Amino acid sequence: MIRKRTASTKLFVLDTNVLMHDPSSLFRFEEHDIYLPMVTLEELDNNKKGMTEVARNARQASRNLEEIVGTNLSSLEQGCPLSINGNKHVSGKLFLQTAAVTTELPMLAGSKADNQILSVVLELHKSQPHREVVLVSKDINIRIKARAIGVAAEDYFNDKVLEDTDLLYSGMKELPADFWEKHSKAMESWQDAGRMFYRINGPLCKSFLINEFIYYEFEKPFHAIVRSTEGNSAVLEVVKDYTQAKHNIWGITARNREQNFALNLLMDPEVDFVTLLGQAGTGKTLLTLASALTQTLDKKIYSEIIMTRVTVPVGEDIGFLPGTEEEKMAPWMGALEDNLDVLNKSDEEAGEWGRAATQDLIRTRIKVKSLNFMRGRTFLHKFLIIDEAQNLTPKQMKTLITRAGPGTKVVCLGNIAQIDTPYLTEGSSGLTYVVDRFKGWTHNGHVTLVRGERSRLADFAADVL
After folding, report:
1. Do residues 349 and 329 share a domain?
2. Whole-angstrom Cα distance, residue 440 to residue 36?
3. Can you give the pLDDT at residue 393?
4. Domain-located, residue 248
5. Are residues 55 and 174 in the same domain?
6. pLDDT digits (tens, 9 = 90+) for 189-234
7. Which end of the chain has the smaller Cβ count within 10 Å, N or C?
8. Structural domain boundaries, residue 191
9. Phi, psi of 297, rounded to the nearest 5 degrees
10. DSSP code per residue over 61-74
11. Is residue 178 located within the same domain as residue 280?
């Protein structure tokens, strides 16, 4: 049986879904021990075939287990150290079930895998009364069953970037009414290439992040972006006002403060990575497409626009789709078509022939790609738009963003309150992950769009339904 360790180190029993969700979870429990029931290994084996993300993770988890256990089978009783392959900070051990469990679960009859895992946890709970035994599972039902029979159970939290998504970086900060009183001493201002800069000093400067928008909405409204910070000093650049018709982007003007901030990021060639969060109708796709077309067709900064999204259906799947990659993706790209219609209508002077010619030109410059074929590619001087990015895992997000070659801009759009994938939550979505990890980087920008600009009907529905 497992040797008794100090009461301060817990024994975590892992459900199979934790390993299939994150194969590296074996190395995430630091000084605590891990116990794997035999049925967990059986389920890993049953799920290892195929090319899905779950199958890949199951195979990786099995490889990790082989490396931990190694050839020293005699040590299974005493536990195998988890501190292998650069995981020296992990001091816990891995234990595998080596004997049959005699504990019966009268309430939960049958040989269902979940019930077998629960009987193992209960047996450990009884045999080690001085130690905390915890079941870790992504499955809500098994956690409820565990609590019903008096066993501690919890979710696997290590993949969560944030516990509370209300704390997620919004990309902007409102300044207090007394801001100028405390920060205008020894203030410097200058102009460079038609842009206005201020150097301010004061206590709030420490909390500013690079490329964070700050706004002051009192007697003299002031909207700026933080360009650099050093101790109690910060350099601010006054943002360009895209709400004015003369500064329109492909006929589109910003309708509110957040949209104006978003356009400042989208039109800035120094910002390589932009994330836009917001509920339906806040203008994420329209603003991004307008700025992409301007910079691709007018300014010639990028050679073409590539648009991709995760193909997760909201309802039942409609089966296989015929045609080429572009034709197969067409049903998923309704949002692209809708926004192109708006952008085409914004050019009133062109007439019908002019608009038709523009439409054909736009179609040759926008490529619709499937995520499935992204691995191994490199995009040079492209404007890459990742739509519905909240449905991506952090691993998939990394795969996509690392496709960017020199001169490529990547824009991620999404609404973390609208996740369609069963295994992701607001806290563990790849979009939340990149917003949190990229904040403060010189070539990154983020804005959370708040106000819907679709119609009074859509706004009312978003509020009351």
Report:
1. yes
2. 40
3. 84
4. no
5. no
6. 999 988 999 999 998 999 999 999 999 998 889 999 999 999 899 9
7. C
8. 165-238
9. -90, -40
10. HHHHHHHHHTT-GG
11. no
Tokens linked to 361: 């030109």
CATH number for the domain spanning 415: value is 3.40.50.300
Residues 6+ apart with CB under 8 A from 420: 312, 313, 314, 388, 391
For residue 68, give both structure tokens: 């931990």
Number of domain units in the chain: 3
Given a contact cutoff of 8 angstroms between Cβ atoms, the answer to whether 61 and 20 are in contact is yes
196 and 149 share one domain: no
Distance of CA 260 to the CA centre of its chain: 23
For 104-136, b/e burial (b = at least 16 CB within 10 A) is eeeeeeeeebbbbbbbbbbbbbeebeebebbbb
82-113 per-position pLDDT tens digit = 887 677 778 888 888 888 887 777 777 667 88
Amino acid at 221: P
d(CA 353, CA 80): 73
Nearest-angstrom CA–CA distance, 433 and 366: 28
85: tokens are 């392959």
Q: Quote the Cα angle for 280-284-285, to 5°.
A: 100
Reduce the DSSP state of residue 76 to 3 states and report it: helix
Q: Which of 163, 165, 58, 157 is nearest to 390 (CA)?
A: 165
Dihedral, 365, 277, 419, 54 alpha carbons, nearest 10: 70
